[in-house]
Amino acid sequence: MKKHLNVFYDGLKNLNINLSDNQIEQFTKYYDILIERNKVMNLTAITEPVEVIEKHFLDSLSLVKAVKMTDELKVIDVGTGAGFPGIPLMITYPQLHMTLLDSLNKRINFLNDVIKLLKLKNIETIHGRSEELGKNVKYREHYDLCVSRAVANLSVLSEYCIPFVKKGGKFVSYKSGNSLEEVKNAENAIEKLGGKLGEIVDFSMKDSTEGAEFGRSLIVIEKIKETPKKYPRKAGMPSKEPL
Questions:
Q1: How would you class 230 by CB atoms within 10 Å of its CB: exposed for 0-12, middle for 13-18, buried for 19 or more?
Q2: By the 8 A CB rule, do 155 and 186 touch?
Q3: Cα(191)–Cα(217) distance, rounded to whole angstroms?
Q4: Within its chain, how far is the Cα of 29 from the centroid?
Q5: How far is CA 158 from CA 12, 104, 133, 221, 243, in A?
Q6: Is there a contact between 128 and 104 (Cβ–Cβ < 8 Å)?
Q7: Residue 104, by phi and psi: left (phi above 0), alpha (psi -120 to 50) or beta?
Q8: Which stretch of DSSP H or E encloses residue 102?
Q9: Which residues, at least 6 apart from 16, have a Cβ–Cβ distance to it below 8 Å?
């Protein structure tokens, strides 16, 4: 990855983000362990250095287009997978208090190794399903911000994520461009769960390998009232019967 740091620096500049040498080193170590572990477990289909920089690291950090990240926020990353966007956000904004949630224990073990290697503070991992943890008083309506890059319909994601957000907080879903129809179809779910559709931030990200750009959207949902106690429904129901 070190050979391609110019791509990273250019992308950071476009996001108005300045990183220290130590933070750049943390990203480099993260890339190295991601690629090494990916040989023995399924973490990501994206492995080329420039693609990881653009489609994982910079894409994760694009959250700054929708949320003021300089505050000391309690954040939960639902369906974090290999740690996106949570780990890049934590490296860049160490004042955050971050929770990484994933249903696969192998990925949680990997993330624990990343946290130890990078010496990250104020970060925890949880192995579990959002449908169950969203009803746990320890986590329910506990966070200022919930983020997710998980590949799921916004109606389903809203039921997974909005219960974690405290009143006055936000849930931000990372989506591909042209997501207006999906957003419209999710309006009923968002309202039932105590949310209100906020800003939709559309932008383009560079894809150097294709010599083109790809569209992205950040869907901001504001939590305006408490989520009814019946949500989230039991495991499997949100995806089987979206609200």
A1: exposed
A2: yes
A3: 20
A4: 20
A5: 29, 20, 14, 9, 9
A6: no
A7: beta
A8: strand 97-102
A9: 64
Domain containing 229: what range? 2-240
Name 97's bridge partners.
74
Q: How far is CA 48 from the centre of its chain?
A: 21
**3-class secondary-structure state, position 17:** coil
pLDDT in tens, 178-216: 788 899 999 999 999 999 999 999 999 878 777 778 889
Q: What is the CATH number of the domain that holds 216?
A: 3.40.50.150
- Do residues 28 and 8 touch, judged by C-beta distance below 8 A? no
Which pLDDT tens digit goes with each residue over 90-140?
999 999 999 999 999 999 999 999 999 999 999 999 999 999 999 999 999
Given strand 97-102, what is the order of strands in its sheet? 123-127, 97-102, 74-78, 143-148, 165-176, 212-223, 195-207
CB-based contacts of 79: which residues, under 8 Å, 6+ apart?
Answer: 101, 102, 103, 130, 148, 149, 150, 152, 160
- pTM of this prediction? 0.95
Total structural domains within the chain: 1
